Amino acid sequence: MKENTNTQNQIAEAKQNFLTGENFYAQHLLGVHQEKEGYTFRVWAPNAQAVFLVGDFNAWQDTLPMEKDHETGIWEIYTETAQAGQLYKFKVRQADGREIMKIDPFAVRFEKRPNDAAEIYPVPAKKWKDGLWRGRSKRVNHFKRPMNIYEVHASSWRQHEDGTPYSFAELTEELVPYLVEMGYTHVEFMPLMEHPLGRSWGYQLIGYFALSSYYGTPEEFQNFVEACHLNNIAVIVDWVPGHFCINDDTLPYYDGTPTFEYQDPDRAKNVRWGSINFDLGKPQVQSFLISSAMFWLEMYHIDGIRVDAVSSMIYRDYDDGPWTPNHEGGNRNFEGYYFLQKLNAVIKLAHPNVLMIAEESSSETKITGMIESGALGFDYKWNMGWMNDTLRFYEMDPIYRKDNFNLITFSFMYMMQENFILPLSHDEVVHGKKSLMHKMWGDRYKQFAQLRNLYTYFMTHPGKKLLFMGSEWGQFLEWKFDEGLEWGDLSDHLNHSMQHFTATLNQFYKEQPSLWELEDSYDTIEIIDADNTTESVLSFMRKGKRKKDFLIVVLNMAPVERREFHIGVPYPGTYQEIWNTEMEEFGGTWTKHNEDCQTEEIAFGNYQQLVKTTIPALGAIILRPEKINTRKKH
To answer: Which residues of the chain does CATH 2.60.40.1180 include?
Structure first.
């Protein structure tokens, strides 16, 4: 009797915490739970007139009415007729008397789309083998470690001949070894949660606790993450707490009144994406969303969450529809702003080492940094400005680059305002924007030359890295969400060489502490010459903790080879070329590196020493000090 009383008290407390926005494990209360010989089902629908449990176990008839807790608006039923593997929904008689079949918002598995009934699916407890990885992750300062992310859309990385996607069991066999071979440190998945339409790429969710059945079972994804960890690869998953799918039988107006969405119809409707916005100020919604994030982190041991569309959550006027100013007369969405601070605070308290990443495109709000300082508390922010400026520059005919050189140098002015990730993401290779390869100017050879140049700039510019799948070998066709990547490209010499280039560059990046050791400080970089617009050559230095640990990066943005090119250096001595994008093994024409450079005591900008070497047309080189005298600087 005492145990039963304790359980009842725990349930009552969980309900109250859900109401106040403080239940961060709401999936233990709501949804379906095995008890004794049967299952208990609970659903939050405060303004419903009646709710019935319907499913395979009662021929989808309303023979199982649920009982309402009037204080919390949670409906409940225990039944011994339901069995594991059966499908179910909730038949909700809404506030206006309309009856509609609704999904279980807390389901951990749904039937395969286009259908969306939930499945009774008790996930067995897993005996994880990634303890060493998780222990090491807690001790590592990720700001001072390399981070090179491979962005993946799970169902179009590879497909079977009949067009079906690889399951996570198959991705464990194929994708994990590929990540290792290519030298990536992280893999990031576009949303894996249940969504009814593949065309949304997973950004129109219905099941915030469910791995899409399109991708396999929860156990298969757990095993995938474990395999990544055993191979020293971190896993990040995109998550969408701003808006949800508009389908009538899913979350929208769940009980016939605004339940998960804003009361104001203008705020509830997301015109741009044809979806519904969460009411981020409602405590129950906060419990729901934070529980979802915690569930993915703990159920699947993922290492990070990328929060999509943060701008739409923190600004009332971000959408294309009508908007109403806040109580101060401005455009700040205070509910979204404080929700994101709360989200980050809760997650960081429970899991300090988890990466919280924001996809956010404005500059009015501090996104990364301490919440106490007014920031949202994220670890990293995608640098959308860098991405847009950089791709505009590389798409440009080189004859105009000298007049637009600020597109690739402006980011040096603000690169430390946030903790940035430099994204070359899926958004830039779809909807007629062309692939990265196709964006490059000139004939096919020049396009590959510039892609190698771009990736060198990308990898040596301060900031963590993200590259979308297929871009590593220069796929020419745009990404198609419903088809596999063009793996046949790799039979072509230039594509194969490009893939080898990317793998080599990834490894180079990991082996050079100067590219990430001081990355959260301006000490990491010293600009040598950002004003050589006439020749369109950019040069800068990346620095590590040790005085002799630095690299000199020189990027030639013009289709003209620069011979006897002058580069200012900080110390006299010998400098060795350790990177050249025009090497034959990468698809270029050079068979050997430039000879080692000996400094000459000639003033160059702020330097008293310079070296002379050859910079390939549309190429990039990196020099490393070999024998230098650090007592004599500049």
So the answer is: 523-628
Q: What is the pTM of this model?
A: 0.97
Residues 420, 421, 423, 425: what is their CA dihedral angle, to the nearest 10 degrees?
Answer: -130
| Segments of the chain assigned to CATH 2.60.40.10 | 2-119
Task: Report the catalytic residues.
Answer: 308, 359
In whole angstroms, what is the distance from residue 589 CA to residue 540 CA? 25
Split the chain (634 residues) into runs of 10 and give each run's mean pLDDT. Answer: 70 96 97 94 98 98 96 97 97 97 98 95 95 93 96 96 94 98 98 94 96 96 98 98 97 98 95 96 98 98 97 94 93 97 98 97 93 96 97 97 97 96 96 95 97 98 98 97 96 98 98 96 96 97 96 98 97 97 98 97 94 98 93 62
φ, ψ for residue 65 (rounded to 5)?
-70, 140
The pairing of strands 550-556 and 620-628 is antiparallel
Amino acid (one-letter) located at 270 = N
**Structure token pair of residue 461:** 């510019």
Pick the CATH number of 2-119 from 2.30.40.10, 3.30.70.260, 2.60.40.10, 1.10.10.10: 2.60.40.10
Tell me the residue type at 39.
Answer: Y
Collect all residues with Cβ–Cβ distance below 8 Å to 284 and sequence separation of at least 6: 18, 19, 21, 44
Residues of 306-334 as b/e, b for ≥16 C-beta within 10 angstroms?
bbbbbbbbbbbebbeeebeeeeeeeebbe
Amino acid identity, position 229: H
Q: Rounded CA gap, 543 and 556, in Å?
A: 21
The answer to whether the beta carbons of residues 124 and 34 sit under 8 Å apart is no
Residues 6+ apart with CB under 8 A from 615: 537, 554, 556, 561, 562, 565, 621
The CATH fold of domain 523-628: Immunoglobulin-like (2.60.40)
Q: Beta partners for 87?
A: 119
